[in-house]
Structure formats: C-alpha cells, structure tokens
Amino acid sequence: MSQNVKSEFSKKSSSVVLENITKIFQQPETGKDFVAVNHINLTINDGEMVTLLGPSGCGKTTTLRMISGFEYPTEGKLMIGGRDVAKVPPNKRGISMVFQSYALFPHMNIWENVAYGLRVAKVGKEELIRRTEAALELMQLKGLESRFPNQLSGGQQQRVALARAVIIEPSVLLFDEPLSNLDAKLRESMRDELRALQKRLGITSLYVTHDQSEAMAISDRVVIMKDGNIMQQGSPTEIYEQPNCRFVAQFIGKANFIEGELKGRDGEAALVEVDGSIIAVPRPGAMPGLNIGDKCCIVVRPESVELSEEEGPLSGVVKRATYYGAKIEYEIERNGQSIIVENYNPQLTKRFEEGDLVSMKLISQCLRVLA
Amino acid sequence: METGTVSRGKSAARMAKQNGTKSILRQPVLLVAVILTILLLLLFVVYPLAKVLIFSLTDADGGFSLENLISIITTSRYLKVFGRTMLLGLIVAVLATFIGYIFAYTVTRTNVPMKGFLKLIATLPILSPPFVLSLSVIFLFGKQGLITKGIFGITDNDVYGMLSLIVVQTMSFFPIAYLTLSGILESIDASVEDAACNMGANRWKTFWTVTLPLSLPGIISGALLVFIQSLEDFSNPATIGGSYTTLSIEVYNIITGTYDMRKGSVLAILLLVPALTAFLLNKYWVNKKSFVTVTGKPTQARKMINEPHIKWPLFIFCILVAAVILLFYGTVIYGSFVKTWGVDFSLTLEQYQRALRFGLDSLWTSMILAVISAIIGGLLGMIIAYITAKRNYYGKRFIEVSSVLMFALPGTVLGISYILGFNTPPLLLTGTGLILVIVFVFRNMPVAIESGTTTLLQIDNSIEEASTILGADSGYSFRRITLPLLRNSFFSGIVYSFTKAITAVSAVIFLVSPSWTLITSKIYGLFDLAKFGQAAAFVTMMIVILLVFIGIFNRLIQWLLAPRSRVPSLKSRSEGVK
Predict the structure, then answer these.
(1) B289 burial via Cβ count (<10 Å: 0-12, 13-18, 19+)
(2) Which residue in A294, B188, B301, B544 is deepest, having the highest Cβ count within 10 Å?
(3) What is d(CA B360, CA B366) in angstroms, rounded to the nearest whole number?
(4) Given the DSSP bridges, would you call strands A327-334 and A337-344 parallel, antiparallel or unpaired?
(5) Which CATH architecture has domain A254-370?
(6) Which of residues 100-139 of A touch B (CB under 8 A)?
(7) Contact of B509 with B255, CB cutoff 8 Å
(8) B571 touches chain A (CB under 8 A)
(9) Are B567 and A111 in contact (CB < 8 Å)?
(10) How far does CA B10 lie from the centroid of its chain?
C-alpha cells in the first residue's frame, strides 16, 4: 500500500537547495533597504520534512514564497530538483502549496477543487477521474464530493486543501501555517495526520510555522530563523538539547540562564563559577566562541531543576506557584533574577508555597553552557 | 507619531507598487490587458475631454484665448441660465433628499405595513424610461389636462416651467437619495440608538441627537448625487421646462441651432465644473466622513418603532408620495391607449400602431446597441476591476480615475466631447452606431467596475495563488477562478448598463444620426410635434421591455449562478476506475 501510494502521488519528489538567498525590499523614500532574508543557505533533501520556525517578521514566509515563486530572490541561487528556478514562474515549478486560509475555490465543489490541478494540466478524462478518486480516498473525503467548501468543517476543508495539493504529484509541497486556523484539539490530530501522510508519500516538504511544538512534532529537521538569518538547524532533538545560542534556547521551550564565568575544563566537563562556587557541567555542548575566563551562562531547562528545603549553593524564594495539573510551575527569585522551575507529577513531590525559601539542585546532565 | 506612520505607509505603498509593476511585467496576458485598457481610456475618455477643454480655451485660429469664456460669463443671458440651473439643482436636492429620508427612515425604523410596496415605489423611478413623468404632467395639468381642464375647467394652464420641473425632477431623483440613505440608516448599529434610549432619551431626542447626526454623511451624499442628476438632466427640462432653460438645454440649442462649437464647449465646461465638484466632494470628502463602521459582527435585530403617533404620519406621507407616482405612471399608460387625450377618451391601439410605424426601427436600434454595449461594458468593467482591485503598479491610479470620470460627466458634456473628438478622420466616428456603443460602454461601465472591485476585494489573495501554484497561468486563473466569482457583479453591471443605455438621452442626443436613431431621440421628437399619445405608447413599451429584460436576466442569473455539481456520474466514474 505504502509503495503504491508513494508512486501515485510523489513520483517527482525532489530536493530543494537555497544558496546564498537574499531578499531585499527597497524603501525608496528613506533610501534604506529592508533585508527580509539575509544570505541563507538551506538544503531540503528528497523526501525530507523541514520546518521554518521563527517569530513573525523573521523571513520564514518570505523564504517560502521565494520557493513557491510568488517572490523572487534579490540574490542567490534557488534550485529545485537540480534545476535553477530563478526565472521559472510559480505555475511552472511543479510544486504545490497548502495555504493558511486553505484557499479552496468557493464556487467549485469538493470534487472539482481536488481535480483542479489535473484539469489545468489537461489530464485525460479517465486518468483525471481515477486520480481524483484516489486523492479523495487518500484524504478520507469520500461522500463529500458534491459539497461546497463552505459546507465543510475546518478539518475537512484542510483535508480538501491537502488532497488538492498532492494530486498534481508535486516535486515539493509547501505548507504556510496550515493549522493555525484550527482549534487546539483538531490542530494536534491534523498535525499527526499530516505528518503521517507526508511520511507515507515521501514528498519533500517545507513547513512554515511560528508554533514551536508543532515544529518539533512534525519535522525531520527544524530551521530556526530570526531577522532574516538562520540561527540554527537540526533535528528536533538537537535543537532542544543542543541550542547554539540564547535565542534558540529561549525560543524552543523555556530556558533559564544562570550567569557565570568559564573557569576551566575537566575532560568533557566545563567548570563554571557562579557566585563564587563552581558548578561542573558534564556535557556543556560545543560552547561556540567561548574561552576560559569568558563570561558565560548555564542554560537550565525548567524541568531540569529539583527543589528542596535543604540548604544548597543555589537558593531562592518562591514568588509564584501555578498549578497546571500535570505540573506545577514555580517562579523562584534568586539575586533579583527569576528562574522558572517545572515540577512534574506534583502528587509525588513536596509542594511549595509562595514565600518559601528553597534550594535548587540542577540536574547536571541536562545543563548546557552558552556565551 | 502620526507623520511617522503616514510616511511608513507611503513607502510601503511605493514598495508594493514597484513590486506590483515588476510582477505585471512578468505576466504577458495581464500586461497586454493593462496596456490596452490604458489606451482605450486615453482614447475614449481623456482625449475627447481634453478636446472640449482645448476648444473652449482657443480661438478660431487655434491660439490660446479666453475670449469665448469671458464673452459667455459676461453675457447676462448665460449667467441667468447658469443661476437657474444651480437654483433648480439646489431645490430639487433638498426636496428629494427630504422625501428620500422619510422613506428610508420609515422603511428601516418603523414597522409600517406594505414595506415591500414602499421599497418598490422608491426604486422604480430609477429604472424608469425618461419622459414618463413630464408626459404625465402634461396629461394631467396641460391644456388638455385631466385635472386642470377635466376637474377645474382651466383650459389655458401653462404647465411648462420651473414648478413642473421641480415636481418632475424631485419625483425622478428622490430614489437616489432613498437608496443612499436607507443604506446608511440600515448600517447604523441598533445598539447605538438603544444606548440613547437606555439613557432616558425619548424617540424624538434619540432621532435628533443620534440618528440624524449619524446619517448626516448620507444626507449630504444623497443631496449631492441628486444635485448632479438635476444638473445633467436633459429630458425633463427639454420637455417640460418651457422658458426655464437650463445649461444642458442651452448647450443643445447652441449646438443644434447655431453649430457654434466653441460657445457650446464653454457652456459645457460651465456645466462640468459644478457637477464634477459635487461628484468629487461626495467621493472623497463625504465618504471619508462616514461614521458608520462595519464590524461584521452580527448585531442585535433592530426593534422597530411601533408608536402610532410616529409610524402612521410617516406611513401616510409615504403612501401619498407613492400614490402620486402611481398616478403619474398610470396616466401615461392610460394615455397610450386613448384616441385623443382631452378630446376623445375612447380606448384604442391606434397610438401603438402609429408609434411603431414611426419608430419601430429605432426601438430595435436602441435595444441592439444597448445589449451589445452592456455585454462589452460588463466584460471590460470586470477586466478593469481585476487589473486594479488587488494590484498596484504605475498607471493604476490613471485607470481608476479615468474610468470613473465618465460617470461624473454630465451627459451633455460627454456628447459634445465626442462630437469634437470623433468628427474628423482618422477618428471619424460621428454618424456611426459604433460611437453610440462606445459612449454607452464607457459611460455605464463604472457601476460594473465598482461592483466587481468590491467583490474582488472580498476574495482572498491566496485563492488566486492556489490556482497559480497548481499550474494555471493568469489567463486560466482569470477564466476559471476570478471570472466565475465575479459573475454576480458582471450580471448586475450588465443590467445596469442595459437600462442606462436604453434610457439614455443627454449623452446621445447629439450623436444620433438618421441611420442610427435611438428610441429616446424619437420620443423627444414626438414632444416637439405634440404627439403625446404616441410618446406615451413608446414609453409604455419601454417600461415593458425593461421589466421583461430585467425579469429574464434575473432568471438567467439565478440559473447561471446556481451551484452545479460537476462530479462525473457514477457510471462514468466506475468506467474511469477500470
């Protein structure tokens, strides 16, 4: 089945290569250029699902639109399947896109919406019917063929948009925040469905989102962007466990930064002095640009802290305790700095109240050191 | 702070314009459409208008001269005509807006009976052929008038003049004010008025402190629109104005009587300036002042006024106006079936027989030209809406402004500009049917453009992008996505264009020729011959034609717009799978 489906919808799947891609919007009035995307290099391998993640205005949507052809790069080389597409208009790129608003054609029924790309390509009637039926079946849209988009639920509309996008056997499939219009529960199930489909079809995909948990759940590789630059790219695990800068650490999940000074190395471990005492970090990460004697910080995830009443080197006062059911989130004040601590399974551990004096024990395996 | 946002907005707009220009350059079909549209507008809007301006400011040798202008504005006769035109416009604007407001308020705020009927009455005169009301005034109050002679025995009543003009124009144009005002009144959030009531204001107080101030932009807008209509009106002053000559009549008399095109041009400019001023005032000032905000949230249903002392006086007023309108229309229809009005009231079809012998060919000409121009205008209107609504590029503003300009021009000015522009080779079009089609297309297109633009702005950009990314070029996307979504606007544009074309008088009165005579100019001729019965027959036929056309078209639209499933039948599907 899997083999079958793949051959049906993604025969032409191919890689995407961005070399030194820059997009500059000109502002003639001020004479200033606005650099939306700044010399980025990115490769999406054949069959891979890559997510562009970043705050709004980071250039992720501009990047997506350059790949789709709705924007043209100011500089750089853009290759799809080994072909330079700099001068190829969007309708000739052989790629497909799922829009944030779904962009279903309101005057066509579901069948016609799905079949649209084949009609454009003037596919013969028999093949048209066969492939449309297959796409409808794939997306579990059987029985809804003669409805119109406004007669469907959000999730169903999303499925139609997907069916319409994959039917033309695109070499690349682009997703422009496709789940942001769905409510939270549906978003999660559609997210998993979408990922399963992408894996099954093996279509090279680029997914744009500002939702970090969505990015983590769906991608082979996550690309974090900020101000037109790529900050870091890697698997979800790498991004979370080996952030290369404070921005990434903070953007993916939550992070506390405990300021200190890099005193030395002990084998793999880094020795960081914090308020006069040395903390040994056994797996500090690559520590890019850090030399002995430099100011640095220890990256502490909220779940990597254990609280206790016993005296310890790192102590603070509970400013806030918020109960979420699965966890309690504490805000601990220490030397004027707030540290967020998450305590899972609150039924098993001691609970603290606002005003309690606590000491924090850092789980040293989970700490990283950054500049 | 404010200047900062403005300048940022501006530069963003310019950025968008540059990008837009580039993207247009990349799409050959679109580029051709833009260039062709600009050329058409230059040729058929800008060029003839420029010609009038130049003509009015030059002497016989072609040199610059203000002589014509000065000689006209220092001639007391023309000053008087100008003053009369303005005065009439003002009076009619006030009266028509007043009646329109009462109709709009009654329909939107009270729960009087027969609302459907009142709405119909208040929109009917817009679709009406010209001459109906002046004809019935003659039938009712003229020398053979049913009321003047029949009831009061007056046989020498001079029905022609200012009073009749005021009555006829007010009745003709109050629907314009009504439509504007009912839109505004409808969109005032019910909760605002409820809030006033809640704070202890009675109905009267609420009206004066909330409803009226909020509808003020609509009142000004309605009055300006009526004022423009009154200025450019030709058919009513020509038939019932008598010695009360207005500017459009003066222009007509000069051009058809003395062929003095220079004088005609200057007078046309005198007519153009106030009309254009009122138009621009309405478009750019009043519309910006509008307080109404459309939130899109469903607001609570308005509670209709039920107090007898408010609703019944309003109702009686509306019914009286309606009765007058029905009386006028009924009189004309009756008049078309009568042997000799005022003398022999025996019923006969004689008027129709004579009328058809006299002008059946013009009736056909009118209908055919109207259909052709409506279809061309509808299509061109959609194309212009398409190339202007969502894109920004150099030249777009020109397309927008010049395409709307024709709408603002008084018909007489348009007529004279086309004579001047197209009476010499290689642009020799006067005397042809083509020139009539062109006038109709460009004059009536703005409504289609407006409606198309509104529709397009509601369509999300990504719908077109979705079509593009699935492989369609801009032509295919236009045919399969945009055009179908525009169908509604397209057809309403066609209905409007057709109606306006078949009822047009002022713009075409100079442009008709012996081989291309329109029915309206034939009817006008019948007035000169005092053959009012035949005129009534023609007008009645036009009413029927318009009703039938609009009826058929509405059916057609409903049929065409009904969503149809294009899912292949089960049989062919199962065959396909095999």
Answers:
(1) exposed
(2) B188
(3) 10
(4) antiparallel
(5) Beta Barrel (2.40)
(6) 100-101, 103-109, 111-112, 116-117, 119-121, 125-126, 128-130, 133
(7) no
(8) no
(9) yes
(10) 34
Distance from C-alpha of A63 to C-alpha of A52, rounded to nearest angstrom: 9
Q: Does A12 touch chain B (CB under 8 A)?
A: no
| C-alpha triplet B52, B247, B439: angle, nearest 5° | 50
Q: How far apart are CA A243 and CA A287, in angstroms?
A: 10
- Cβ-contact A110, A160 below 8 angstroms: yes
Residue B549 to residue B529: CA distance in whole angstroms: 30
Buried-exposed string A134-173: b where 16+ CB fall within 10 A, e elsewhere: bbbebbebeebbebbbeebeebbbbbbbbbbbbbbbbbbb
Q: A172, B469 in Cβ contact below 8 A?
A: no
Q: Both tokens of residue A252?
A: 């993916």
For B470, the closest of A96, A128, A174 (CB atoms) is A96
SS3 B169: helix
Domains of chain B, each with CATH number or no CATH: 67-292 (1.10.3720.10)
- Beta strands (DSSP E) in chain A are 16-27, 32-44, 49-53, 75-80, 83-84, 95-98, 172-176, 204-209, 221-226, 229-234, 256-266, 269-274, 277-281, 295-300, 305-308, 315-323, 327-334, 337-344, 357-362, 368-370
- CB-based contact, B32 to chain A, within 8 Å: no
Residue A1's pLDDT band (boundaries 50, 70, 90)? Answer: very low
| ipTM score above 0.95 | no
Residues 297-326 of A with CB under 8 A from B: none
The residue count for chain B: 578
Residues 6 or more apart whose Cβ sits within 8 Å of residue B558: none
Residue range A110-132: average pLDDT? 92
Say yes or no for a CB contact (<8 Å) between B566 and A109.
yes
Structure tokens at A110: 């579901």
**Sequence-ordered list of residues with C-beta below 8 angstroms from that of B201, at least 6 positions apart, any chain:** B209, B210
Dist CA B437 CA A129 (whole Å): 45
| Chain A hits for B563, Cβ within 8 Å | 107, 109, 148
Low-confidence ranges of chain B (pLDDT < 50): 1-10, 292-298, 565, 569-578
Q: What are the angstrom distances between the C-alpha of B77 and each of B21, B235, B251?
A: 52, 22, 13
Lowest-pLDDT choice from A44-58, A125-139, B186-200, B471-485: B186-200
Topology (CATH) of A2-94+170-241: Rossmann fold (3.40.50)
Q: How far is CA B152 from CA A77, B140, B148, B327, in A?
A: 92, 11, 5, 18
Q: What's the mean pLDDT when you consider all of chain A?
A: 88
- Establish whether domains A2-94+170-241 and A254-370 are of one fold: no
Distance of CA A176 to the CA centre of its chain: 12
Q: How far is CA A321 from the centre of its chain?
A: 30
Cis peptide before B426 (omega within 30 of 0): yes
Query: What's the confidence (pLDDT) of residue B125?
Result: 81
A292, burial (CB in 10 Å: exposed 0-12, middle 13-18, buried 19+): exposed
Per the CB < 8 Å rule, is A120 touching B471?
Answer: yes
pLDDT, greater one: A288 or B435: B435
| Domain definitions of chain A by residue range | 2-94+170-241, 254-370
Give the sheet arrangement for strand A229-234, strand by strand: A95-98, A172-176, A204-209, A49-53, A221-226, A229-234
E strands within B102-207? none
Q: Do A103 and B481 touch (CB under 8 A)?
A: no
Token digits of residue B328: 């006028």
Residue with tokens 């018909």: B411
Structure tokens, B13: 């707009």
CA–CA dist B103, B185 (Å, integer): 11
